[in-house]
Task: structure prediction
Amino acid sequence: MNEQFSILKTDAEVRTRLKELAADISKDFQHIQPDNPLLVLCTLRGAVFFAADLVRALSIPCEINFIKVKSYQGTRPVGSPIFELGEQIDVKGREVLIIEDIVDTGQTMDTVIKNFNDKGAVSIRIATMLDKPSRRYPHLRATILPDYIGFSIEDYFVVGWGLDYNEDYRLLPDIMIYHPDAET
Ligand code: 5GP
Ligand code: MG
Result:
């Protein structure tokens, strides 16, 4: 590993925190019954590992499905996020937990929540591995507040634990700060 990366959270720290979040979520949703399980919507692709470990640590009935929203190119947001998968998932009468890798400007979660709110979900909560509150668009500061946050971080561009930079570095075990300027 060269000097363009530095560790922000170790794999062990992520796994410990993930167990705590799973306990909080299981407690908050203990009323959930098997005939109407918690509908977990994992955002592709960054949240896949976090969601897989998180749902398996839950002690409540849940069903998992996947959504994909395009919002980033390299280290820059791409304007309005676009649904690429899962827009039509039936959430009517369901309690929904969206699992996200990182909430940044908030526009992706805003798009997702608006879509599913309009389709009759009973409740929609967000669990995110990372939150960058200082990056939130001002008009979303009061509305996009994730319910379960692994770690709240400063304004770094991070990779690893599922997060990529143009499809690289997803499989790094630790969450690393990536400094593209240090590239040679
Ligand atoms: P938002 O719509 O909140 O600005 O961005 C959400 C999406 O942008 C995240 O789901 C993630 O895919 C991507 N993103 C935001 N910040 C970072 C980051 O620091 N690293 C990586 N790899 N992706 C990020
Ligand atoms: Mg994402």
Summary: The pocket of guanosine-5'-monophosphate (ligand 1) is lined by residues 43, 46, 71-72, 77, 81, 100-108, 157-159, 163-165 (CB under 6 Å). The first helix runs from residue 11 to 28. DSSP finds three helices and nine strands in the chain.
